[in-house]
Amino acid sequence: MRRHIKYFSCLQAPFVAGQLDVCMNNLDKFIPVLVGFNPINMARPDKIDGWHSTFLQVAERMQRLEKLHKAYVINPAVGPEGIAGSSRMKGGSVTKILLETIFLAAHKALANNTDITDGCLLDLLRCYEKAHSITYSHTEMIAAVVKQAGASLRQNGHIYYIGWKSLGVMGIIDASECVPTFGADFSHVRGFINNGFKEMANNDGDMSTQGPEFAISHEDFLKIVLPTIHTNDIIVFIFTLDEGEVSEIEKMAHQIKVSTDNVVAISHGTVWQYMPKELKKLFSIIISVIWPGTLSNYEGCYIQMFQRELSTKWILNAISTGAHVLKGKVYHNYMIDLKVSNSKLFGRALYIIQMFTGQTRPKCFERLLQAIYETDELSEKIKNVEISKHIQHAATMNK
């Protein structure tokens, strides 16, 4: 029996290339599937340290096997990211849509003992299209929160997401992406979820004792962060109105309001649900996303949960990205304050230096190493080590 393994990638990750190579070498066990959002010919051609292939060569081999129906490349062209290099926005969102569409359709077909039809896939995709329409009908309110979040970061404040259930996971993911994307400290944007790691059903259990970055529960927020809250911070509550936890939300909001008035909400409800008046009074801005009773004939509760997650992801991406733009982390649509923590970001840093200086690639490579090693004089030893060693050194640097 063959195991089906899917790898989703930006067509640059060395780890994914290696795993795909293993799958292609063992087609009796695996059916490799690669998902990306750039044309195959744009996959990274650079040599991967300590390996025999480039990602481009792996992707081209996948294409050849696809013609033989032994592998699959799903490569929708969704256009460039709004902020150059921020693959978490369009790429991340389309990945979520594709994954959920694939597996929801598969589960439906299995449950009904039928084939997956074009109509089923189209129905699911139209649900996400509707989610997009509903979400971006709130652009004015989203823009208001972006402006407030940007003001917080410019004044050395913080953005805190207080979420419930899977929407809390969306907050933690968005916050975690700000570190490599914008060179932010982990404390600048943080996410917290009710019941912490227990709510996330983490395989390794509660990891909150492993360091401050792992403190993700509401209790951690109240104990560690709340005493440090000041007026420059912004707190974003993320919840649905059908969770039966309105009293808990109201209690937390009251506690936070003592320290700052910058408390906003992203709430999800149906046409027959309303936010209590007393709760409304606690938020300076409310992005109230109202959903129809059901948007799909198939497992309505699941598809609506996924839609709410995606809607929340879009809103949070806009908040954190817009706030960092307002702080000055983006120049000419390029993220200029990134951390060189992997090969993709090393290449991006090199490209940015070359683009803005007009110098040759070797010269820019030298300037990048000078920045990484904080020296004007590079030894021959440093110049000749593998790029992976430079990345390891850069990843440990503090600003």
From TrEMBL:
SIS domain mapped to chain residues: 149-329
GO cellular component, as recorded: cytosol; nucleoplasm
Top-level taxonomic group: Eukaryota
Entries under InterPro entries matching the protein: GKRP_SIS_2, Glucokinase_regulatory_CS, MURQ/GCKR, SIS_dom, SIS_dom_sf
MF-aspect GO terms: carbohydrate binding; enzyme binding; enzyme inhibitor activity; fructose-6-phosphate binding
SUPFAM superfamilies for this protein: SIS domain (SSF53697)
PROSITE patterns: GCKR (PS01272), SIS (PS51464)
UniProt entry keywords in alphabetical sequence: Carbohydrate metabolism
GO terms under biological process: carbohydrate derivative metabolic process; glucose homeostasis; response to fructose
Coiled coil start-end: none
Name of the protein described by the UniProt record: SIS domain-containing protein
Organism for this UniProt entry: Scyliorhinus torazame (Cloudy catshark)
